[in-house]
User: Fold this.
Amino acid sequence: MKRVLEIYREFSEEAFSIALHPSGLYVLVGFSDKLRLMNILIDDIKQFKEFTIRQCKEVMFSNGNRTVNIFFNFIINKK
Assistant:
């Protein structure tokens, strides 16, 4: 089996985290300002959902493919 790069997408900002759905149809990418869910198409990767979760350090799809696990920094200041 040959390993071949079939599609890729470059972003202007650095990605903090990435998760590929087990079906291969979706990719979840965490950036400094938002978490973006994208469709993987035949010749492109298109964003279709955006969440206002900042600096998401780790994302993963669950084993059952029904939920997404998201880990990010959350700081509570006590006064």
